[in-house]
Design a protein that fits this description.
By secondary structure, the chain is mainly alpha-helical. Helix content is 71%, strand content 0%.
């Protein structure tokens, strides 16, 4: 008989089904809420377009948020398997990612941070593929382009661009042409965006409204409750242990896995900076941490020698998440 931890470590088909069930159960309360938070002045153009197209439909953004979350979990799993970051037959990173997203029901719409995560995953996929590749100009260009397009939905994602350059320096020797291609790929969507604003006589207004005046209002306020403090304390303790495990794995095992985990670590640092320099500590900012933390927490559970301790900690994590959700929706 396999426990939940062993099931996800085994990579059996049942773990995929359980991921779907967890996602659906976590998203059910969100269908009782409105589709979008209507703050058009704060929205980036990509997300503004989604608001315009989908706002008349009451449940569509929540349904798309569920699809994006489950799809993102499978992409996380794909990253883990394709680049052999630890174990090929291991669904723990996908589980950790979905559990993080399950916590805050207010963010279960197709919100900017959730979309930003998807584009960040795409960027990682292209950049990871450059390791030991002879010709990788296309991968670098598209990696930067995905990051830039993602920032048109979620502006703070632009702070992940230094992480892309750090990733290139970790995975490859310095090549100014490759870095230049990355810079072009990152700037290209903004060139088109600003050109459109200029031609429609909106440049000054949009630059001040979106990029200057309201920049730090991007994140929705997160109200602390007793249960959310419990979640933060519990996950902080897990994070401390996971950090030591992660730092150790960055210096052991296959070289390419070490390099990939190093890029995940730097992405986590940048995600923490995004969260720290916002006006509010928000659940959206926390959502940005979910991608790098999913790999770190998965490595922690993978390295536990005691099966009993691992199962206990995983069930405790799930219990804390359920308590937080019940209080937030109550």
């Amino acid at each position: 008989h396999l426990g939940m931890l062993q099931l996800f470590k085994s990579g059996r088909a049942e773990s995929y089904i359980l991921l779907l069930i967890i996602g659906v159960l976590a998203w059910i309360p969100a269908f009782n809420q409105s589709s979008f938070i209507e703050v058009p002045a704060k929205l980036m153009p990509g997300y503004s377009l989604l608001v315009y197209l989908l706002l008349p439909f009451k449940y569509i953004s929540v349904l798309l948020g569920l699809i994006a979350a489950i799809g993102g979990a499978f992409v996380v799993n794909g990253l883990n398997e394709t680049f052999e970051m630890r174990s090929k037959a291991n669904q723990l990173p996908a589980l950790m990612y979905l559990l993080f997203l399950a916590v805050f029901p207010d963010d279960h719409r197709l919100n900017p941070a959730l979309l930003g995560n998807l584009f960040l995953m795409g960027s990682w996929w292209f950049i990871f593929a450059t390791y030991r590749a002879d010709k990788c100009m296309n991968e670098i260009f598209f990696g930067a382009l995905f990051l830039s397009i993602g920032s048109l939905f979620y502006l703070p994602l632009i702070f992940q661009f230094p992480g892309l350059l750090i990733s290139l320096s970790v995975l490859r020797s310095f090549n100014w042409k490759e870095w230049s291609v990355g810079l072009i790929g990152f700037l290209l969507p903004f060139v088109y965006l600003f050109s459109f604003y200029y031609l429609t006589d909106q440049l000054q207004e949009k630059v001040h409204t979106i990029f200057i005046d309201r920049f730090f209002d991007w994140f929705w306020e997160f109200k602390f409750t007793h249960s959310s403090v419990l979640f933060i304390v519990f996950t902080s303790i897990l994070f401390i242990f996971s950090l030591f495990i992660h730092l150790g794995l960055m210096n052991t095992g296959k070289v390419k896995a070490q390099k990939y985990l190093t890029t995940v670590f730097f992405s986590l640092i940048l995600s923490c900076l995004i969260a720290a320099f916002t006006q509010y500590w928000s659940s959206s900012a926390t959502m940005m941490l979910s991608l790098p933390l999913s790999f770190m927490f998965a490595n922690f559970f993978n390295q536990l020698a005691s099966r009993f301790v691992g199962e206990l900690l995983l069930w405790l994590t799930c219990a804390v998440i359920v308590i937080v959700k019940l209080q937030l929706i109550g």
